[in-house]
Amino acid sequence: MTNPDIRALEPKALWNKFADLNAVPRPSKKEERVIQFMKDFGNALNLETLEDEVGNVIIRKPATLGMEDRKMVVMQSHLDMVHQKNADTIFDFDTQGIEMYVDGDWVRAKGTTLGADNGLGVATIMAVLESTTIAHPAIEALFTIDEETGMTGAMGLKGGVLKGDILLNLDTEEDDEIGVGCAGGIDVTATRSYKEEPVAEGKTAYTITVRGLQGGHSGMDIHKGLGNANKLMNRLLYNGFENFGLQIARIDGGSLRNAIPRESVAVIVVDTVQKAAFEFEFDALSNNIQKEFETLEPGLEMVLSQTELPAKVMELGVQEGLTKALYAAHNGVYRMSPDIKDLVETSNNIARVVVKEGAIKVGCLTRSSVESSKVDLANALRATFELTGCDVELSGDYPGWAPNMKSPILQVLIDKYKQINDEEPHVAACHAGLECGILGQNYPEMDMISFGPTIKGAHSPDERASISSAKKYWNFVLEILKDIPVK
After folding, report:
1. CA–CA dist 339, 462 (Å, integer)
2. Does position 402 have pLDDT exceeding 90, yes or no?
3. Is 167 helix (H, G, I), strand (E, B) or coil?
4. CA distance linking residue 252 with residue 230, whole number of Å
5. Is 325 helix (H, G, I), strand (E, B) or coil?
6. Residue 318: phi, psi to the nearest 5?
């Protein structure tokens, strides 16, 4: 996959490495190929290259001439990417490289996520490692795995492996932003079994499809009030159950825990004598929901189509409990930060709802920059689902990253940004989960900062990277590396 249009973009060093990387399939938890790719890259440059016991790759490069007295810098990005595609896109993330194209000032992918999160960070580090002309201190390149589905790479990195003094995390998605803090998170998973009952005579079956939502990053986009396919589907199911005795055969909604759900599909049955009234009510409710979301979600569709009768449906008692629990379970912003203007403190994403073959599974990702608030919301969700007979597991807990406004590297970046761009940067904490908080547990003395190029629509097929921003960001990186403090 040559991607000549991408490789012709400036800065060529950055975009060529991004094209190389995006030719390698790199799903979370299936990073074997990209790990080998990165090790081969480091070894080909004759640089010290190692893989730790969980799969993180570390490549070390000595300082350039005259920079030997500067502090060692850890440049860090994650190798994996979120895999999302449009329903009508035929694509195998396990075997295919990302198909990219240029759209004005944006690089996009054809019907899939682009992988700029965090591929542009990885490509940046690769370009610096390969260069023979960029001035820099001693560099430790840290490529972590599995950031998107559990941060197990950062969690598995042991203390004492890294030697650097300063960590530059290249995973922020606005080029005027300098990140100094982030949210922690915890997975809330509710499960239970149910009895399946044969479908009675005199029933009509339908497939309900919720589609056309924007989706997006469940941290960075959660404040936008975008539609959640699982919550919208539940409104339709709840209404049909309350008014027409609707029975659920199957539900399959959402996908990844850190992506706002764009689609949901359910198979249901209703009494044939209620058919006309049910269809009329469904259309009326769908129209009302579309009006609610017409500004934010102009592509939203709720489609009712008649289908073959399923063999079995859920027992009604469990169905009632599930639909009520999903209605009650909090989704979206739970609390705004009282200390940092416009920062979401705590939120939840009802990411995945699966009902089939006698088993229910509901997956949520709860985020917060305040540990006690994270626990509070997780407990609220747990109580909601336990009231309806579910077993609830809290797992994948990871810490946030507390801001340090006295950070020396923060001051370097502020000064450099002002000098280059003649304006003040936006210093902020974010509601996404960055690896800095986890890495800081084993490296508490390391001075950490996060920044990056402008990327929009991360975790969705609308993901796109700004070409002009990449230029601005690349220049910022080079200037920062020139001005790392002395030891």
Report:
1. 32
2. no
3. strand
4. 9
5. helix
6. -70, -40
118: Cβ–Cβ under 8 A, 6 or more apart, which residues?
Answer: 77, 78, 79, 81, 147, 170, 171
The answer to whether the CB of 185 falls within 8 A of the CB of 433 is yes
**Domain residue ranges of the chain, discontinuous segments joined by +:** 4-182+400-482, 186-394
Radius of gyration for the chain, computed over Cα atoms and rounded to the nearest angstrom: 24
CATH C-level class of 186-394: alpha beta
* CATH label, 4-182+400-482, candidates 3.30.700.20, 1.10.10.350, 3.40.630.10, 3.20.20.110: 3.40.630.10
Token readout for 462 is: 């609308």
Q: Residue 295 and residue 281: Cα distance in Å, rounded? A: 23
Beta strand pairing status for 139-144 and 73-78? parallel
Here the tokens at position 150 are 């559990």
Rounded CA separation 19/28 (Å):
19
Q: pLDDT per residue over 42-101, tens digit each?
A: 999 999 999 999 999 999 999 999 999 999 999 999 999 999 898 899 999 999 999 999
Long-range contacts from 127-130, C-beta under 8 angstroms, 24+ separation? 127/11, 127/13, 127/14, 127/16, 127/17, 128/61, 128/75, 128/477, 128/481, 129/41, 129/42, 129/45, 129/47, 129/59, 129/61, 130/13, 130/17, 130/45
Band of the pLDDT at 3, cuts 50, 70, 90? confident
- Give catalytic residues, as residue numbers: 80, 147
- pTM, whole model, 2 decimals? 0.78
Question: 187-225 pLDDT, tens per residue?
Answer: 999 999 999 999 999 999 999 999 999 999 999 999 999
CB 253 within 8 A of CB 326: no
1: confidence class by pLDDT, cuts 50, 70, 90: low
